[in-house]
Structures are given as C-alpha cells and as structure tokens.
Amino acid sequence: MTFISTTRSADVVLIGGGIMSATLGAFLKKLEPSWSIVLFERLDDVGLESSDPWNNAGTGHAAYCELNYSPQAKDGSVSPAKALGINEGFQLSRQFWSHLVNDGSIGAPSNFIHTVPHMSFVIGDAHADFLKARYEALHPNALFSSMEYSEEPAQIAEWAPLVMGGRGAGRVAATRVAEGTDVDFGRLSRELVGFLAGNGVEVNYGTDVTNLERSRGGWSVATKHKASGERGGIHAKFVFVGAGGGALHLLQASGIAESKGYGGFPVSGQFLRSTDESVAAQHNAKVYGQASVGAPPMSVPHLDTRYVNGKRSLLFGPYAGFSTNFLKNGSLWDLPGSIRLGNIIPMLAVGKDNMDLTAYLIKEVAKSRDAKVQALREYFPEAAGDGWELITAGQRVQIIKKSASKGGELQFGTEVITARDGSIGALLGASPGASTAVPIMLELMQRCFPKNFKGWEPKFSEMMPGYGLKLNENADLAAEIAADTATSLGLAAPAR
To answer: Is 386 helix (H, G, I), strand (E, B) or coil?
Structure first.
C-alpha cells in the first residue's frame, strides 16, 4: 500500500475502495494478471463509506424479506420478477466469493458472512393479505422454494422471540427463509483489496481524485493527497468511478455525454444499535416490515442481527433524514455543487413531484429519541430504550434522471453509466447495490471491454457455475450450487 502515488500510468484506475471497485479489481486481476491497476481511496482504509456494516442499510440482499422488491399491484397481485432478478444476482455474488475462498485469494468466510434467517413480518389484515399473496407468488419458484409462511403467533415466536414477546392480540403474518445471510461488506472489501495489494495492485489511501480529463488513449486522473496537500496525476487507459455518492461529481468532471442530465438526491439515515450480547443472543434474524406511507424504499423498517468483527449485535431502523452531503465524510456543498444546466430541470421536476417524500423526511428529522424508541417497539415490544445507541448511517444518493413525460424521475435502484468508447464507467444509485456487486460489475465489463469479454466467459463459468444461466429455471443446478457455495462459505444450505 502507498499513500502518495509515484506511478505515472496504468491500464486501470479504480476510484474508491468500496465493494464495487474491490470486486471489479478482483475480476480484472484474475482475468488479466499482467494489467497494471492502481486504486485511490480518499479515506485511510477501504470499505469505510457505504460498504461499512454500520453504514449499509441492508446486508445480504437476496429479496427474501425486502417487501419493496415485490410491490402489490392495484388488483392485489404480486409479481415475483424483480425479486427473482435480485436473488439471481446475489447467487452469482455468492459463487464468486466461494471461488475466491476456495483458491485462497481471500481469508476465512467467517470473517465476512454468516447464516442469518431472513424474515418479513407484518401487522394487520391488509398487510397480512399482501404478505400471503407475496408468498404465493414467490414460493413456487426454485430460488424461493424454502420460504415458509405462518400466521401462528407461536410459530413466529419460535422464529423471532423478541418480535412476539409482549405483543398484544391481532393478526400478524411472517415469512422466513432459514438460509439467509448477513454480510459485512466492509470486511469483504478489505479482503478483496488485500488480495489486490498482494498481487501487484498499488493501493493509495488518503487520496482524493480531483479531476478527470480525456487524454490520448485514455484519461488523465488528477489526485491530491489529503494529509500533505501534494498533488499528482496518472494516465489510465480505463477508469472506474466506484466512489459511491462521490461518483456523480467525477462523472460530471469527465464531461462524457452519457453523464448529462443526471442528478442526485441524498438521503441520510440513523439506526438504533444494541451491542448487549444478552439481547442479541435472543434474536437470530433479519426481520423486515412495511415502509411507512411516503417513505423511500430504503427506509423499510428492519430489526437485524449483525456480525461485525466477530461480535453479534442488533440494529433497528432506519430513521430517514436529509443532508446535502453525498458521502458521510463529504461536504455540505455536495448537492448544490452538483447542479448543472443539464440536470436542473430534472431536479426541479423531482422536487415538485415528490413533496410527500420531502414531508416524510422533515417528519423523520423532527422525531425525538422517544419517538424512535416507540418505532422500535413496534417490532420489539419489550425493548429497553436506554439500551440502544443512536448511530448515523451512510449517505444514499438516489438517481435523478431526465424523463420525457415528467421532466425528471427519482429512481431508487442502481445504474451503470459508461462512455461510448468504454474507457470509463461508473455506478450511480444505492439499493440493492453491494449484494449484487458481481452481476453489476459483469455488466460493466461487458460494456467497457467488449473485445475481451467473450474470451473471458469460459473463466467466468469456472468461477461461477451459474454464469449465463437462470438458476430459477434449473432447480437441480440451483440446489447443487447452493449446497456447494454453502459448504465453501460455511453457511446453512437450503432444505430440499
């Protein structure tokens, strides 16, 4: 690792040390070991922004429990399509991690992944009817065949005792997938970057990338070392902007036509955290509920078991808020500094059309600690409020893009942006993000390295046996791969 780069040129420059850059770097080092790669991270270690487990609102997304990935239509039906797509993507991520563990590229999987059942839990007739419709839409599919459904309080109490203890009468419903996981993407990022650093990749910490300009055969990348103030630069044939909320500013600096019209809407959040081991020992699940009316999708309440540095804790939230920072360690000028002539109309249109979201965020910001504890008690009725610490999570910058019909639209997913010549790529947006880093980076590589990609595909199939296939349409293969990756990663395998 280095702190001030002296390298003048590289085949690949990775900006940002989170799970996206780390995943892309690991792929490229496996595929093209002779390529020179340089990584720049503005903080003093990797995985400290959105990939950090205390900043990451959802860990181990597989669409088992996140109800916003399978919304109910006006006619009461539930489409499984989006949930299936996310689950397929997560299965690819698991296969890649399994490959890296098996060949010794990264350390023990217990450092970053644990089995934690995924549950959805709802209260009241309307929500229970929805959850049952969702179960009936998902359960027949191979990837969701192990999902269980119950409205029996005793059964739900067995799955999640804290959720049911002290709960009054009334209809409740829950689904459960026993083989769900909790993933520490901060630790996984460090494992991946450790592999890169041990195989010739230069990793620069405490270094901001301040500008991107086209130069002959690639890009001129300007840098500034934060501690010393020393400025530098490097020429790159290819640049990946994996800087989380900071990606939009760098895309704008690049001037590529494909970045025009994009804006960002930052949403902050807080969580209540309990590190009391006696409490954490009573809850082994990620329990997701229904979002409040007007709440953004990333604000779905959930009571999570988390494993961080080998210690089991509980997390509840999020409580959404608003800050003009694009990064947790960013600047209040991030949002106003992102406004351009090309995106001001979409941004104004989004502001006009999302007044309910604005009102929701104001309401959330104004919530007292007592109100936050009361929200916790909807999911953990007997919670002792003084045993929970209020922490600030990472920033999420939602995509704003042009819309022919509305002028601008606010989107809550992720989007890969690449230049037409494939010399630069970036990722904007948030959810489901980290959990589908592998398929996202596969898409980016296909778009940015079209001449290499076909030749890489046999290697992809070696790394990920489900590559290029729909596991949901191949039940036997899905079961075989699930069992193999569970064994490699030390996880529970789905019941058959």
So the answer is: helix
